[in-house]
Design goal:
Helix content is 32%, strand content 18%. By secondary structure, it is α/β, with parallel strands linked by helices. The chain has a seven-stranded parallel beta sheet with strand order 1-10-9-6-2-3-5, sandwiched between helices. It has a three-stranded antiparallel beta sheet with strand order 4-8-7. Strand 2 (31-34), helix 2 and strand 3 form a beta-alpha-beta unit. The site of fructose -6-phosphate (F6R) has 13 residues, from loops. Residues 35-39, 66-67, 132-134, 138-140 line the site of fructose -6-phosphate (F6R).
Amino acid sequence: MKVIVTKNYEEMSAVAANMVAELIAAKPNCVLGLATGSTPEGMYANLVQGCKEGKIDFSAVRSVNLDEYFPIKPENDQSYRYFMNKNLFDHVNIDKANTYVPNGQAEDPQAEGARYEKIIDDLGGADLQILGIGQNGHIGFNEPGEILTAGTHLEDLTEDTIKVNSRFFASVDEVPKQAFSMGIGSIFKARSIVIMASGANKHNAIAKMLEGNVTTFCPATLLNLHPNVTLICDEAAYNG
Ligand code: F6R
């Protein structure tokens, strides 16, 4: 795993945005695997800025998001579809028809998992998958446990994750208890992966991943098995 340690959140965001911009310049119709949450917000802001300045052209880019709460409507301001529109898609020249997020209103969750996995396959997998990391080491919403799922599936969120994510909701009771998530196998279909982390609260998960061992009880450690992973993290996440 390649490791880039930045001074702070702003530098982490700029470095990640540059990698995405370089990929789009080299392959205008690339497939971006995208994440939500606090970590990539600054990267998206940089990409919006780059597009406004005419330096990045999203017109042929395709995107596939990691996860979405369930059940949730896309217009709910806590949905990841809403997040993506607000933070990126509404401000760049991407064709929204080429942007994919799991359907948080799916009637048949199993069928939705299979449908979404087929979308990933039809796109040929992501050229670059962006990941954040949970304090408990989750990637996407693949929560620590004895078994990790390979493909896109409905995941029960852990109490930890519900508590951590409640900061975005009016109360902890409003946080959905489940989410669709790409599985570890879906994530591994990406040709390259960038995992981002900022802040001392991510240090334990980052340190565990960097030990180089693999355990399903810290899903990010599985990334040690992928041939092309770059960690971009700030000093606080790296040093604790
Ligand atoms: C979001 C996702 C999650 C987050 C993780 C960290 O699409 O897949 O794994 O990356 O929960 O969240 P933040 O960035 O809010 O600390």
